[in-house]
Amino acid sequence: MLHSDPIMPKTTLSRREALGRLSMIAGAVSTGAMARAASAPSTQPLLGLDAHSVRGMKWKAPQLIKYAAEQGLGAVLLNGFHYFDSLEPAHLREVKALADSKGVIIRIGVGGISEGAVRFSTQYGTAQEALVRGIEVAKILGSPTVNCRIGSIEDRYTDGGIEARLAETAKNLKAVRRRAEDAGVTFAFENHAGDTRSDEVLGLIHDVGSDLLGAMLDPGNALWSMEDPLEHLKKLGPHVRCMSVRDYMVWASEGGATFQWTAIGEGLMDVPAFTGLLRHHCPEVPLFVESISNSPRPIPYLTDEFWEGFPHVKAADIVDFLRLVKKGHALPFATPAAGEDQKTFDQRHQKAEFTKSIRTLRELLG
Prior knowledge:
- It is a single chain.
- By secondary structure, the protein is an alpha/beta fold.
- The chain has one domain: Divalent-metal-dependent TIM barrel enzymes (TIM Barrel), CATH 3.20.20.
- It is 40% helix and 16% strand.
- It contains 13 helices and 11 strands.
- The chain has helices at 16-28, 61-70, 89-102, 127-141, 161-175, 177-183, 198-208, 219-224, 229-236, 271-281, 304-308, 319-327, 342-365, and strands spanning 47-50, 75-78, 105-112, 145-149, 186-190, 213-217, 240-245, 247-253, 256-262, 287-289, 297-299.
- It has an 8-stranded parallel β-barrel, surrounded by 5 helices. A 3-stranded antiparallel β-sheet has the order 8-9-11.
- β1 (47-50), α2 and β2 form a beta-alpha-beta unit.
- α2 (61-70) packs parallel to α3 and α5 runs parallel beside α7 (198-208).
- The protein starts with 15 loop residues before the first helix and ends with a helix.
């Protein structure tokens, strides 16, 4: 999803030289061929629209469903209640009927469920009340999963760090276990805007129970927390219950690195390797495309303040990430054409990036 600006640290870390040397070592190591999943099934994933891809259109659920159908897609991810005009059962049943008529399945999300998160919203009540409402919405719409998350990289710098936010998340999920089980619904936790790394997501899944909680995989966000998205998928693959993907680029810059997401096929992602792992680990999970391009963001890993949010991450833990930094290059920033306003540009650009990504996936997946 579209994320808040990251913390912008200022001072230089004393370990800069050590990390710089590590970066050079990582770049010198041969990356070899990207791993392909062994014995991958021949079935291809169902392609879908993550509604955030066309956020500039300000569309609600019915328009998004129709757009997905027009693109020949079989699924739509509505990762928040704001996509619905109402959460009343009558309206939700109308949305479900429309989706059924178009041959489109629906997946949903409830947003943040950690009360201590910087951007936690009480619009839908407490975190547990939002989860319960998500269960009810999912049951009507036929979504087997309900996505949830903490928030953003800023939450790593809150009181108690990300561990405290993970504890709040686990508590709230456990509290609604019986409601979810009765409805036949499970949850999928999203690594959102650099807030969590794969080992932290795995820890949460094990704490809550893998029968109730899986992963909402966002490999683009993995890059934000200094992880190679492909390695992120390898770790979380068996637990994936929902996913939103886009390509990515990262390069060395002042204070560390800068990254930018791209249309699929235009970044560093080894798309055949990535989709091969998906077929191997979670072939039944729809492959939602969430294109977010033209939005460079810093990863200032050579500064003191940045590492305060990652106290347990060691230099050796980011070797794969540093290889990507060494491999990547800066991308140009697109601007509106002469006489074109920003809103029109955003809408045109977002649609173009999304359709380009879908076209690339179709070509590669056959």
